[in-house]
Amino acid sequence: MTFLSIVLPVYKVQGYLRQCLDSVLSQSFTDFEVVAVDDRSPDYSGAILAEYAARDPRVRVVTAPENVGLGRARNLGLEHATGEYVWFVDSDDWLSEGTLNAAAERLRETDADLLIVGWDRVHWDGRVQAGTARKSLAAAPDVFSVEQWPQVLNILHVAWNKVVRREFLLRLGFVFEAGWYEDVSFSFPVMLAAPRISTLPRTCVHYRQRRTGAITRTVGDRHFEVFDHWEHAQALATKYASPTDEVRGLLFRRMIWHFLRVLRHDARVPRESRARFFGRMSEMYKTYLPPAGYPVPARAEGVRYRMVARGSYRSMRLFDFTIAQARRGKRVLRRTAGWVKRRARQAAGQVYYRVQRRLPVDQSLALYGAYWFRGVTCNPAAIAAKAAELAPHLRPVWVVAEPYAKSMPPGVEHVVAGTLPYYRAIARARYLVNNVNWPNRLVKRRGTTHVMTHHGTPLKKMGADQADHPAGVKDPDFQAQMRRADRWDFSVTANPFTTVAWESAYPSAHETLEVGYPRNDRLAAATAADSAAARERLGIPADRRVVLYMPTHREWLPPGRRVLDTERFAEELGPDTTLLVREHYFTTPAEPASGAAVDVSDHPVVEDLYLAADVLLTDYSSAMFDFAVLDRPVVIFAPDWPVYRDVRGVYFDLLAEPPGAVTTGYPALIGLFHSGAYADESAASVRSKFRKRFCSLDDGHAAERVVRRVFLDKKQ
């Protein structure tokens, strides 16, 4: 028997259907079928379904005899489903990577009749809201019934976040009713009747918030159908379950919450119908009020419930109007106050900055920053540590953005960006060291020294060299880029290759310090004991093979899309391997569900990860240049190399001059690790050539060379 049937009702989704199907068919888990129901869609959806069915036998298309609506289309799909479990996925949404595997594992672990999964909301303008139910799902017992954990009734009542045992549905005769809000009369009875419920607290479904076409935004009296579905849900609840007083109370409260939501927020009940809608709501309140009562919400929401109980529509309108006006007034005041406060702070800061610039330069102050003020890290951190040893007369101060201030190491003197101490520091510091540029408004004072350390050996085009590759440009103001580069006194490069690249990327009058990368000093001097200590800090057993996966950022991929399914990869590496996954800092962290995959995106010191790893798996990240210092295997997984090369522009052909084994396809990638070819003589030979070109200066003394030249003025 097929494990999972994905029922996909399709109607007027031609713009979204391919993304939905691709997200399902590209999953690593393969024991599933897609039962796509063409609900007589008048657009090209039917043709798209036929195209996918022709090339993938897992897709079966069922055509409705006429347009039957969402609920009936789901029923038609259920009739043709053969899987042990069924998942009613909406065809304008899409699944995250690894979802089917994670869901299947959870179902097998718990033998659940119903699995409720997490989701996020993806807005049409690109905004993403993390699933509000994730904490609730994580707090649930492993397996439970509604009586054992009634809070489950507060989780969004939709079909697409639930995977249900098909035999359970058929045995009890659960089907979808016709009309809008059909999820209500399905979801709540199923939850109440299911003896074994479990949850999966990870983002499985990307819930599309459409700009147009959503039922909840359609104006009309069909919103009254919500009452019919709740009546049906209440009847089925009584038929298939014996709810406790607590469950009855929570179900009742959820019903009234939903009615208020339809009237006040989600829906578009016509103005002339709202009093009638409220009246029906009040009738339902009296009819279904539990004898033991219900937990009345606090504050304004509780007031509305009491007005529904009394049937006081005019009072609720006046109450909502008063609340809305008060909130609007607060928002205006808050915005005005916030704008005035920000402008005043900026203006005061700039005035203070100008005053401080007239005061003498503080010859003892060395100011450091890294990654847009994220903390003590990278080349500036290595330079600061060595300066404390060789130039103790200097006082190191770090600039940190407010969100990162609490995570600064104890005892590290720092100023928060945008504050008066920050303006004083940037105005009077003798030395300013950063791995990115300082803000545009910073004025380079005579007698000060700016050190640009950069934060990677460049594969992709940078600076002025990006002009020929506009699709990958984030900052098209090249004039401003060059003005910032003109402030540099020193530019630190890791190797002759980088020196040449920066010559064309940043044509300015700075002195190049071709000394190696200070942050790699630790790697160059590392011992076996250092690696063992790094593993111990990460909790990795000494006998495990450790693969570190560090992909780069791809601007052209939609939110949540990855080029490698890390869960599948971790499983196929085998039980003797730990996969560490470190996403790029511009990328939303992935959610590996397999126990063999560990998300280390938030680990503060990347060098710890390098030392703990036996092999680095990457694509186009500058991590390959740093990791090569350790002379350990590197694998390049470059499935979209032509796209990256053409969009971003590159300084050399990575596939022709790699740091190790290269593959552009997943089967070949698995083959490299299973066969051990990633660490054979051929891979070692190309790594040796790569190291000669890019790592020859990394001898453990790069930071010392920078400190002696910049802070001690000792030319070599």
Automatic annotation (TrEMBL):
Q: Where is the Glycosyltransferase 2-like domain?
A: 5-128
Q: Where in the cell is it found?
A: Cell membrane
Q: Where are the transmembrane segments?
A: none
Which keywords appear in this protein's UniProt record, sorted alphabetically? Answer: Cell membrane, Membrane, Teichoic acid biosynthesis, Transferase
Main location (coarse class): membrane
Annotated membrane topology is:
Peripheral membrane protein
Pfam families per the UniProt record, alphabetical: Glycos_transf_2, Glyphos_transf
In the record, the note on similarity to other proteins reads:
Belongs to the CDP-glycerol glycerophosphotransferase family.
Q: This protein is called what?
A: Bifunctional glycosyltransferase family 2 protein/CDP-glycerol:glycerophosphate glycerophosphotransferase
Q: Which organism is it from?
A: Paractinoplanes pyxinae
